[in-house]
Write a structure and sequence with these properties.
Layout lengths: L2 H7 L20 H7 L5 E3 L4 E6 L7 E2 L3 E4 L6 E7 L3 E6 L2 E5 L12 E9 L4 E5 L6 E4 L19 E8 L7 E3 L11 E3 L5 E4 L2 H9 L1 H7 L6 E6 L3 E6 L2 H13 L5 H15 L8
Parallel strand pairs: 3-7, 10-12
Antiparallel strand pairs: 1-6, 2-5, 4-5, 6-7, 8-9, 8-11, 9-10, 11-12, 11-13, 14-16, 15-16
């Protein structure tokens, strides 16, 4: 019996496949804004204790990337959560994850990612490069209204925005392009005829989604655009014109390791230089 199965028996709730830390609604006022910054900022190394729950606690928590729940030898502790990689501990309500500044993307169940269709696989599936150590599998039947006779139109080299439904150790990750209700929502093939793909550190992608109204909102000053952000550090941007798209690409890449104030000054300078307008849609 695995550690996580025992932890599940201890009423630890792991990440829901239809839940995404980066895309949680931030429409609940100033408390949500404060939570977006993370209530906790503490550097953890692999094996460090993040937090623990006392015995008999009915509190539920959601663990994201870089954290694992383990049983404790102390009878007064229900379970303890330790880091599996280096990073800063972040919290939003009862959701916890590690913000890892660099390194390769590590798949986590429930993440929405952007991948590149690399090659055909066995059966009705394709292999998608999501920037992890191994490609993910995407069934052509895991699209809205897809059937054996009516397969999704997915070609080699296409960009797909999909959700990680499974990423068990030792097995290739599994992607789907539908939610629990069988709806595609915003998932599926993106940018086949327009836009560009931008690769940034996964920590910046998570920051863009967490601080959506601030960082992506800054692009509103450069003009109307469409933006799709994957938690694996890949973004698809499409502006009103090619120079506009290039300008937004440079702005997003410059956001890494810059505070919000510097990002705002950078975008304002680009706006004055290029004379671009307003409107972003993500």
């Amino acid at each position: 019996q695995s550690t996580m199965e025992v932890a599940d028996a201890k009423k630890l709730i792991n990440r829901d496949p239809d839940e995404d830390f980066g895309e949680e609604s931030m429409e609940e006022g100033e408390e949500a804004d404060d939570a977006a910054d993370g209530d906790v900022e503490r550097l953890l190394l692999p094996g460090d204790l993040a937090f623990s729950e006392p015995a008999g606690s009915d509190a539920k928590c959601v663990l994201g990337v870089g954290l694992r729940a383990l049983l404790s030898n102390d009878d007064s502790i229900e379970f303890e959560v330790r880091a599996t990689r280096s990073g800063y501990l972040r919290q939003r309500g009862r959701s916890f994850w590690l913000d890892c500044p660099g390194g390769r993307y590590q798949p986590a169940r429930g993440d929405c990612v952007i991948g590149v269709v690399a090659r055909r696989s066995m059966g009705d599936a394709v292999l998608v490069d999501i920037g992890s150590s191994e490609p993910a599998s995407l069934s052509l039947l895991s699209f809205e209204n897809a059937t054996k006779r009516n397969r999704a139109d997915v070609r080699l080299g296409d960009l797909v925005y999909a959700r990680l439904a499974r990423c068990d150790p030792g097995l290739e990750p599994e992607l789907v392009c539908v939610d629990s209700n069988g709806r595609s929502d915003t998932l599926g093939v993106v940018g086949r005829d327009s836009g560009t793909l931008v690769v940034v550190p996964p920590s910046l992608a998570r920051r863009l989604l967490t601080d959506k109204r601030r960082l992506l909102g800054l692009l509103d000053q450069l003009g109307k655009c469409e933006a799709t952000v994957g938690l694996n550090g890949r973004l698809w941007l499409c502006g009103s014109s090619w120079p506009h798209t290039v300008a937004m690409t440079g702005a997003v890449a410059s956001f890494h390791q810059r505070p919000d104030e510097e990002c705002q000054k950078l975008v304002a300078e680009m706006q004055r230089t290029l004379g671009l307008g307003n409107g972003v849609r993500s």
